[in-house]
Design goal:
By secondary structure, this protein is mainly beta. It has one helix at 72-78, and strands at 7-10, 30-33, 42-44, 49-53, 56-59, 64-69, 80-82, 87-89, 98-103, 109-111, 116-124. The longest helix has 7 residues, at 72-78.
Length: 152
Amino acid sequence: MNEIRIDVAPLPHFEGLELPAYATADAAGMDLRAAVPEDAPMTLAPGAFAMVPTGLTIALPEGHEAQVRPRSGLAARHGVTCLNSPGTVDADYRGEMKVILINHGPDPFVIRRGERIAQMVVAPVTRAALRIVAELPPTVRGAGGFGSTGRQ
């Protein structure tokens, strides 16, 4: 398993929270925590969304991204998930990482300080060079779109 170094510069409102870490030896993602004030949790009404601060700024190595993904437990139990999933943190971004959460559940959801709200997966980036051609090579599927390969 490859390991890369990521420099982290916590912001003042991160103080007292745990750095993201892998929960198990084979975990792909590290949990991100809400850096909301202890005395002022955020409440997401049903259908509402908000940017939740993590209190972290990071410096990813060139050629890498951090994907911000939902936590399955929040989605399964409360209907709370990441609105733009996966969100992408580019290697040249130096602002605070925030998580856009949406409440698809029937009840208001309270986000408390230190609560695990998303997971971060660090991945290599492949850059594509697009080129215009007169015609694409044929395939068995061709131009068949949504549902064209049938239900398995």
